[in-house]
Write a structure and sequence with these properties.
394 residues; four-stranded antiparallel sheet; 6 helices
């Protein structure tokens, strides 16, 4: 009886706070940015990122990857994951579907501009060995947003009204709204330029929902496939002034999108869909600040939500010198616990989190880590109790 009582007592005790950090490779004076992260069924970690000298104007950009075998203390040397020769490859995302198939999404700019991004994807069922996965199949994800031409002009006008004072002095925002209005009238412009940034989610055993966004329209979109990428359908756009959506489903079936803010309000935009991601409410700013930087939110096995974001309104290094993990126990209504992952002066930035929950229940987050002038990908492992302990525990 004593042994049973002790066992029950131990299981009732909270886990000890856990935090570990490592670099995937030594920081170097090249651009290593926007990671994607997955854990395989064997417990291996795979991470991808884009690598080169710049972004869409750099035709040398490629998608690189690295692997950390289960039980190992070291990451492999970086290897090539994708390279559309003489085109800049960017914004890679990894995902493992319920069948165990690995997906890689990424973009290439056909004319070194934001409005000529072409969205590609490839899959692998042989990715457990050393080096890069062996790819079975690849295709282009041809985007056809629903009602963008009808909804964008009204959204642009609403943004002009809501942010009238800012738009008077913000030439970039004013020009982007005008450009987006003109582009929304052109079928080809509506179908090019869409990108991935955060993990897809599964709405059923076969229905995949992929988050997309456009820098031309400053809005987000959902892509759906029920046949593992053979055919795709799309949602109406999520408007206005947001990009890089992270989708998360509530217990009642509603889908919430949390995004990077492209408006002057500098708060994480939030939108809700009550019809499986087909249509969306207009975005509203959450209480958590956002300095025009990427976020990701996931649902944990505990039922809690975990959000990682830069939570400033701007400043040095674009406000990306501070990166924070937030925890919610009420599906995002409130965020009672948070803890700083990175906080630096202008010399170092951390951004673009890719977040998953490991099989052992710990949280894994890969992100761009930029101790100027170098850059690498950093991985941290922590648990909910570490977040709950808060910054006062440091």
């Amino acid at each position: 009886m004593l042994n049973i009582a002790c066992a029950l007592l131990l299981t009732a005790l909270p886990a000890a706070p856990l935090y570990e950090a490592e670099l995937v490779f030594p920081a170097e004076p090249l651009h290593n940015h926007s990671p994607g992260l997955v854990e395989t069924a064997d417990g291996d970690l795979l991470v991808c990122w884009f690598h080169g000298r710049g972004e869409k104007t750099d035709d040398s950009l490629v998608i690189r990857g690295a692997r950390k075998k289960s039980g190992s203390d070291e990451w492999s040397a970086p290897f090539l994951m994708a390279d559309n020769k003489n085109l800049p490859d960017q914004n890679c995302v990894l995902f493992i579907d319920p069948r165990g198939t690995l997906w890689l999404f990424w973009i290439s700019s056909l004319d070194n501009t934001s409005d000529t991004y072409l969205l590609k994807y490839r899959t692998s069922n042989d990715y457990a060995g050393e080096g890069p996965p062996k790819w079975d199949w690849q295709d282009v994800l041809h985007c056809r947003p629903v009602n963008l031409d009808q909804r964008y002009p009204a959204s642009a006008e609403k943004a002009r009204e809501e942010f009238a004072e800012n738009i008077k002095t913000n030439e970039r925002l004013r020009t982007r709204l005008e450009y987006g209005e003109n582009a929304s009238k052109d079928k080809l412009a509506r179908r090019l330029g869409w990108m991935t940034r955060t993990h897809p989610i599964m709405l059923s055993e076969t229905r995949m929902m992929v988050p997309l966004y456009s820098d031309i329209f400053n809005c987000s979109l959902a892509a759906f496939t029920d046949d593992w990428g053979e055919t795709w359908t799309f949602s109406e756009p999520i408007l206005p002034l947001n990009v890089q959506p992270s989708f998360i489903r509530k217990q009642n079936g509603d889908i919430v999108a949390m995004m990077r803010d492209k408006s002057p309000r500098r708060r994480i935009p939030r939108s809700v869909s009550k019809d499986g991601g087909q249509t969306w409410t207009l975005t509203e700013g959450m209480e958590i600040p956002n300095p025009d930087s990427s976020v990701e939110c996931i649902a944990l096995k505990s039922g809690n939500w975990l959000l990682v974001c830069n939570d400033t309104t701007g400043g040095e290094r674009g406000g990306r010198t501070k990166l924070t993990a937030y925890l919610s126990d009420d599906e995002g209504k409130t965020w009672k616990s948070h803890r700083t992952l990175e906080k630096h002066d202008a010399s170092t930035a951390a951004s673009y989190p890719s977040v998953i929950e490991s099989r052992d229940g710990t949280i894994l987050c890969a992100y761009t880590y930029s101790p100027s002038p170098d850059e690498t990908i950093k991985l941290v492992r922590f648990n909910e109790d570490w977040v709950r302990a808060g910054d006062s525990a440091e």
